[in-house]
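Help needed: design a sequence for this.
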């Protein structure tokens, strides 16, 4: 599902970028004026908004993983490990029953 959404977003960006590729946009930083294609400005704006949210998501996920591990640690001695026996025998099913 994630791959489909990324593919749709990429297709939408390409469909936007192809007819709008030109150098009409000027971006000024103080006394500096830079002429950039419109799709690059849109891509830079997208990344400027998406990267902080992605980093916040990763930090939050790591924090919740640590909290969960800390909450499960006292329960670990109560959980019995599975008993593995080497004497397990296969079950023989007579013909006509399966």
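Sure. Designed sequence:
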């Amino acid at each position: 599902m994630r791959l489909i959404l990324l593919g749709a977003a990429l297709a939408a960006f390409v469909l936007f970028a192809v007819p709008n590729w030109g150098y009409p946009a000027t971006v000024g930083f103080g006394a500096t004026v830079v002429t950039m294609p419109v799709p690059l400005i849109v891509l830079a704006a997208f990344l400027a908004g998406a990267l902080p949210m992605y980093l916040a998501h990763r930090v939050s996920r790591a924090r919740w993983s640590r909290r969960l591990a800390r909450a499960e640690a006292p329960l670990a001695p109560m959980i019995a490990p599975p008993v593995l026996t080497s004497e397990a025998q296969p079950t023989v099913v007579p013909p006509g029953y399966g």
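The first helix runs from residue 2 to 20.
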